Amino acid sequence: MSKNEFNDATLKYLTNRNYNVVQVNEINHSEIKFYRKRIIDITKKILHNKIEIDNNIKDVYYDYVNVLIEHFKTSDKHDLIQEEFNNIKNDNNIKLDISNVDSLDSINSIIFKEKKNVSSIDNFVLKKSTTKEVKNFPQEKKIDLKNKKLRLKGIKEKSV
Fold first, then answer.
1. Contacts with 58 (C-beta within 8 Å, 6 or more apart), sequence order
2. How far apart are CA 138 and CA 136, in angstroms?
3. Which of 5, 43, 93, 105 sits at 20 to 30 Å (Cα–Cα) from 32?
4. Any idea where the domains of the chain sit in the sequence?
5. Half-sphere exposure of 157 (CA within 13 A, CB side)
6. Whether pTM exceeds 0.85
7. Is 42 exposed, middle or buried (0-12, 13-18, 19+ CB in 10 A)?
């Protein structure tokens, strides 16, 4: 066995099948064409839970289905976003005349929108709230448990 064949055999039999990279050249299109109906049939049966299959095939099938679902989601999201922009005209003929621009500050004033400060009386007046909120915290009741009335409460008097 050559070193290359040994490495291929090691990768084939001793690694997790999910991490194996399948070469596109290894796929035989004539075999796909030959087994096409069986592939479609077993895929339908797996989809409708009508067949019990090997765990390796089940894992590969679920990976395939998850990749398809992600593809569908991405494609749908792309289409929905693009529908929003169908009515927008793409005007590439806009040209700016910057031949008379001298400095970086003048370029920045053209590109960036300057923030305007609007003066009003609210900017100069300090506002204070005059009402103070009165907080009523619960008070602990003081109970005299050594009161004389409590000493004899509930006891009948002796008749003499």
1. 46
2. 6
3. 5
4. 29-84
5. 2
6. no
7. middle
